[in-house]
Design goal:
- By secondary structure, the chain is of the alpha/beta class.
- It folds into 2 domains: about 375 residues, Alkaline Phosphatase, subunit A, CATH 3.40.720; about 80 residues, no CATH class.
- Helices cover about 40% and strands about 15% of the residues.
- The chain is built from 21 helices and 14 strands.
- The strands form 3 sheets. It has a 10-stranded mixed β-sheet, with helices on both faces. The chain has a two-stranded antiparallel ribbon with strand order 9-12. Strands 10-11 form a two-stranded antiparallel sheet.
- The longest helix has 25 residues.
- The two termini are about 20 Å apart.
């Protein structure tokens, strides 16, 4: 029986973690100086590193003729504060998205793979639960499945992030008013293993269920469930080059606009999380063009949020990442590094993410098939030796098969493309770096300097005059409890309700 790849049934990083890891921080402790915002918009570019922002900024200057990226311009404004966020989890100095989002959702370090729960099955009160109890409306918008780790981190308690079919059901009782993203397979009776009609259950609770772009653009409803893909929303670069996807799938900015318009009348204000989740997926794939385009799409959504906040005058917008992914970097190349500029500009010729390219190449790839697909989709004429590196990797004969962080076809492909784009990657995995955080609106100055990820929970509660302290757990106690939990779970039950996120697998 195959179990979840990220399952808590594995100790994961327990072997390298130690009691030196700090587990919780006092944060703001309910204190707030100055005007309190009525609304909070918390924006997450999942998997975004510093270099993601820098590459996106330079790309838009060089390839698109813009003066800068939107976020770069935002950071240059005197009314916007920028700092760094520390990103570790309970089980490791490198977090996953479930633990990262749970720090915002509960104010506590969480074991990688779990959402707002400790390994002893202690459930923590969530930010969403506390806000809704105080009369605040809540919305979650994402380009991943609606049941994915980051949106779930604000609202859900569950032992394994991969139990997405059960997360879909939890959203029925989470109290969230607006949910928009992908994941039809977790809501549709014809696609769920248990044949449960989760859409029907949402409709019984008064939700307007929409599944296409036209329906969401001018939508007015008190409760909204918008699901626009079977799994994750397509990469922006693929959407932008497919007329059918352009017609049927809304952008993150469009979903953000609709969410804000339907939440803004709440008498006690609203809390809205907006996630650009495909930035992370592109990082896992080491896909430069896909990451650049989804970062730009995320920043389009940031623009929607900031412009609303400027008009409203009573909204705090926080823009950050949960962690970085892949370690991308534009490298110096050529005489006086002049080829670096040419390499980045060449990304403008790319018209697809890696997935359609691998689909064209096929499972039993030849060097000529690799060359044809790469030229068709990326505008690059690979040399025969370069194409053979990729075809060998697809056929299980990678030169890098024994390298833990550079194995498989994705790494081989990215390393070959580095000859042309000059963008290199350190791995297919998350990294431990501190990530950027910018803020605009009442209280935005609190993100200056270094903010620990657990402190955003206290910060957002304090913004609404609220305070809550969840119980803590040490790494040592968590490591003992995870062994007991592993032994107690029925593997067939776990496999039945778990999903496998193909876009984050590293074969």
């Amino acid at each position: 029986m195959n179990l979840s790849r990220r399952s808590l049934l594995s100790l994961g990083a327990a072997g390298v973690a130690s009691s030196a890891i700090p587990f919780s921080f006092a944060g703001q402790n309910g204190k707030w100086k100055g005007k309190r915002p009525k609304n909070i918009i918390f924006m997450v570019a999942d998997g975004m590193s510093h270099q993601t922002v820098a590459i996106c900024d330079e790309y838009q200057k060089l390839a698109l003729g813009k003066p800068s990226s939107y976020w770069a311009a935002l950071m240059d404004r005197p009314d916007v504060y920028t700092g760094l966020q520390e990103t570790r989890s309970l089980s490791s100095v490198v977090t996953d998205s479930a633990a990262a989002a749970s720090t915002w959702g509960s104010g506590r370090r969480i074991w990688n793979g779990m959402i707002n729960m400790y390994p002893d099955k202690t459930s923590l009160r969530t930010l969403t639960n506390l806000m809704i109890e105080a009369g605040v409306k809540v919305g979650l918008v994402t380009t991943t499945t609606m049941t994915h780790a980051t949106p779930s981190g604000f609202a859900i308690n569950i032992i394994d992030r991969d139990l997405e079919a059960l997360i879909a059901e939890q959203h029925l009782t989470s109290g969230v008013s607006v949910l928009m993203g992908g994941g039809d397979k977790f809501f549709s009776a014809t696609k769920r293993k248990d044949k449960k009609d989760v859409y029907g259950e949402f409709e019984k609770k008064g939700f307007k269920v929409v599944k296409d772009r036209d329906s969401v653009l001018n939508l007015k409803a008190d409760k909204i469930l918008g699901i626009f893909a079977d799994s994750h929303i397509p990469y922006s670069i693929d959407r932008d080059n497919d007329p059918e996807l352009l017609r049927t799938v809304p952008t993150l900015a469009e979903m953000a606009h609709t969410a804000i318009e339907n939440l803004k009348g709440a008498s006690k204000g609203f809390l809205l999380q907006i996630e650009g989740g495909k930035v992370d997926h592109a990082g896992h794939a080491n896909d430069t063009a896909a990451q650049v385009h989804d970062q730009m799409a995320f920043e389009d959504a940031v623009k929607v949020a900031i412009e609303f906040a400027e008009r409203d005058g009573n909204t705090l917008v926080i823009v950050t990442a949960d962690h970085a992914t892949g370690g991308p970097s534009l490298n110096g190349a050529g005489n006086e590094y002049m080829d670096s500029t040419k390499g980045l500009v060449s990304v403008a010729k790319h018209t697809a993410s890696y997935q359609p390219i691998f689909d064209m190449i096929g499972k039993t790839a030849s060097g000529s098939a690799v060359q044809g697909a790469v030229e068709a989709k990326l505008g690059i004429q690979l040399k025969a030796k370069e194409a053979s590196i990729v075809s060998d990797a697809i056929n299980g004969k990678s030169l890098f098969a024994d390298l833990e962080l550079q194995g498989g076809k994705l790494s081989a492909f990215a390393l070959v493309l580095q000859n042309y784009t000059k963008v290199g990657w350190t791995s297919l995995n998350h990294t431990s770096e501190h990530v950027l955080v910018s803020a605009f609106g009442p209280g935005s100055e609190q993100v200056r300097g270094l903010t620990r990820n657990v402190e955003f929970f206290d910060m957002m509660l304090a913004a609404k005059g609220l305070k809550w302290s969840n119980p803590t757990m040490s790494f040592e106690d968590a490591a003992k409890s995870i062994e007991k939990l592993r032994a107690s779970i029925d593997p067939e039950w776990l496999a039945f309700y778990s999903s496998v996120d193909d876009e984050c697998l590293h074969q």
